[in-house]
Design brief:
- The protein is an alpha/beta fold.
- It has ten helices and 17 strands.
- Strand 11, helix 5 (202-210) and strand 12 form a beta-alpha-beta unit.
């Protein structure tokens, strides 16, 4: 089969061995797969990711030989074409998605991450092998494009849940990329009182406003803290006002800040922007060393919450939200590309003008 292969920091489309389903597995044809920030990072910072994984002592994929190259891609929807022994209940033609792991009892962790192992090609190809116990059926009325956003949607849900955000609280999302916008959708669904979004991109700010942000800010247009304070004190049912705060040099500030940018300096800025005893939820992945001022966090008695991924229950909840209509991620998908366009698309997303870009295999026939 044809697939995009990452080898020695280079991305090429080439022929690779078509996977074969084993016991308890299915072979599925890829219908759509999102381009994830983690994949962009892997293409540029694979050595750093391996070193960090090794230092964290939390998974074993860094021990695998990457010299043969890997096929990434883990935000997918696929159609079953063949069931292995013990997975016959999954019939050909069924559309499915899954957490991007394949069960592997021989692995120290009990699973292999789909798309980050030379042994288990991901969905930037024509076919994937999936574990039957992990499969979730996609409702007939949910489009391929929306189903392919289940994984990042679950990331946004996990961030909101880990941030312990309550109805009526105020929140700022730094960064209106796919994960920031998924976080926005879940904050709106959870009934948060006021949600602001900041981003340098006018297109992404417009998208955030379309998806329900109460205010959108260009951090390059002025002092973001002052703009936020003015918005929080503006008369509105959606902007809770605290008469005990304000006046003098004291600014109103959000209860929680979601840092969804992942570049140097944004974590420090998030700590500056959040209110006393506030929470900073770190969702963006900064691939370089960063600096913060611990005294700032101490003086404000802040909570920093670093989040990763999602739970199986959150993944299923994200997919279910598409079926019941309570979450609509379709506006976040701004472009689709075919396999041969993937390498150039990765390069272009280093300076993103799109939001969520999907790989969709060329239609047969």
């Amino acid at each position: 089969m044809r697939a995009m292969v990452l080898k020695e920091s280079k991305l090429t489309v080439q022929e690779v061995t078509k996977p074969v389903p084993g016991p308890g597995q299915v072979l599925a044809r890829v219908l759509a797969c999102g381009i994830c920030g983690s994949d962009l990072h892997a293409a540029k910072f694979m050595d750093e990711m391996i070193a960090t994984a090794k230092a964290s002592r939390r998974n074993a994929w860094y021990e695998r030989d990457m010299s043969a190259g890997i096929v990434m891609g883990h935000e997918f929807v696929a159609e079953i074409v063949e069931a292995g022994p013990g997975a016959e209940e999954w019939k050909p033609g069924t559309r499915v998605t899954s957490m991007p792991v394949v069960l592997a009892p021989e692995s120290p962790t009990g699973f292999i991450g789909l798309g980050y192992s030379p042994d288990m090609p991901g969905a930037y190809g024509e076919y994937v092998v999936l574990s039957a116990p992990m499969l979730l059926k996609v409702a007939d009325h949910v489009s391929d494009e929306m189903a392919a956003t289940t994984e990042p949607c679950a990331v946004g849900l996990h961030a909101v849940r880990e941030g312990r955000v309550k109805p009526g609280e105020t929140a700022l999302i730094m960064g209106a990329g796919p994960i920031g916008l998924m976080t926005l959708l879940w904050l709106r669904k959870e009934g948060v009182g006021y949600v602001a979004v900041s981003d340098y991109s006018a297109q992404r700010r417009a998208l955030a406003a379309k998806l329900g942000a109460d205010d959108v800010f260009d951090p390059g247009a002025g002092d973001l803290a002052e703009m936020l304070s003015e918005a929080l004190f503006r008369p509105s049912e959606k902007r809770p006002q605290d008469p005990s705060v304000g006046g003098g040099d004291v600014l109103a500030a959000p209860d929680v800040v979601f840092e969804c940018v992942g570049v140097e300096g944004t974590l420090q800025q998030a700590m500056e922007l959040v209110q006393m005893r506030g929470r900073v939820v770190v969702v963006g992945v900064c691939m370089k060393e960063d600096r913060i001022t611990p005294l700032l966090g101490i003086n404000k008695q802040l909570t920093l919450q670093f989040v990763l991924g999602y739970t199986p229950q959150e993944y299923a909840e994200a997919l279910a939200s598409f079926a019941d209509g309570s979450i609509d991620t379709s506006p976040i998908v701004t472009r689709t590309v075919e396999l041969d366009e993937l390498p150039a698309t990765f390069a272009a997303l280093a300076d993103p003008k799109d939001c969520k870009v999907l790989y969709k295999p060329k239609a047969r026939g």
